[in-house]
Write a structure and sequence with these properties.
There is one protein chain. The chain is of the alpha+beta class and about 260 residues long. It has two domains: about 120 residues, MutM-like, N-terminal (N-terminal domain of MutM-like DNA repair proteins, Alpha-Beta Barrel), CATH 3.20.190; about 120 residues, Helicase, Ruva Protein, domain 3 (Orthogonal Bundle), CATH 1.10.8. It contains six helices and ten strands. The strands form three sheets. Strands 1-6-7-5 form a four-stranded antiparallel beta sheet, covered by helices on one side. The protein has a four-stranded antiparallel beta sheet with strand order 2-3-4-8. It has a two-stranded antiparallel sheet with strand order 9-10.
Length: about 260
């Protein structure tokens, strides 16, 4: 699942191409919206909210979520799509351009003044204007027995952290992802670092937590066989509630 910085960047690209333009074509390829036609309406803006995308079109908002496999592509008129047509869920066309949403996990319309019905459950957004460190810390501390690796992925606590950054943040904090949140030292430093990492990566496609953008050197433990700090074999295991586990990576030497 994409990290919050990827979604932020996607929103920025959609906003740059679509905003201020009237839709000349719309194609919703999901059953609930198959007959919906927003042609003629003007796109006002696209913003991200954690890992959610909100495209505001007049009095309605198109809410989309990339989930694991989704992506928005921008194409000039006449340019062939880079993914197969059967994966398309939404097409929004303006003069000269089309925004095509492939394999989107969520596609729904909400009234513009009722956006909170689809994103109101989210905690403060690490890259959003609503960012509130104290609130994020209070959310995390509300369940001190919960493993920190689970708590960081819960978007109700704070919005924008995905699996890569979860694993890397635990490494940088020197704690195992299974450690109870209430036992994590300097939790405020961990959360502040989370924001710094997303801010540092939001403008680039190559995500890095090490400061090195070369392939294979961008992470300390995530998707690594050996810890890039001490060389110990990286422990790989599943973490999370049944049916919703994600692969965790941790160094047995650098993390306690």
């Amino acid at each position: 699942m994409p990290e919050g910085d990827t979604v932020w960047r996607t929103a920025r690209h959609l906003d740059r191409v679509l905003s201020g333009h009237a839709l000349v074509t719309t194609d919703f390829r999901v059953p609930e919206l198959a007959t919906t036609d927003l042609t003629g309406r003007t796109v006002d803006t696209t913003v991200s909210r954690g890992k959610h995308l909100l495209t505001r079109i007049g009095d309605v908002t198109l809410h989309t979520h990339l989930k694991m496999e989704g992506a928005w592509h921008l194409y000039r008129d006449g340019t062939p799509w880079r993914r197969p047509a059967h994966e398309v869920r939404v097409v929004l066309g303006v003069d000269g351009w089309s925004a095509v949403g492939f394999a989107l996990g969520v596609v729904e319309l909400a009234a513009r003044d009722a956006e909170e019905t689809v994103v109101g459950h989210l905690g403060p957004d690490l890259l959003g204007p609503d960012w509130d460190l104290d609130r994020a810390l209070a959310n995390l501390r509300s369940d001190p027995e919960r493993p920190i690796g689970e708590a960081l992925l819960d978007q109700r606590n704070l919005a924008g952290i995905g699996n890569i950054y979860r694993n890397e943040l635990c490494f940088l904090a020197g704690v195992q992802p299974t450690r109870p949140t209430g036992e994590v030292p300097a939790l405020d430093r961990l959360v502040t670092r989370a924001k710094a990492i997303l801010e540092a990566n939001k403008e680039r496609t190559e995500q890095s937590t090490t400061g090195d953008l070369r392939p294979g050197r961008r992470t300390w433990v995530h998707d690594q066989r050996r810890c890039r700090r001490c060389g110990s074999p990286v422990r790989r295991f599943e973490l999370g509630p049944p049916g919703r586990t994600r692969t965790a990576y941790a160094c047995p030497g650098c993390q306690t």
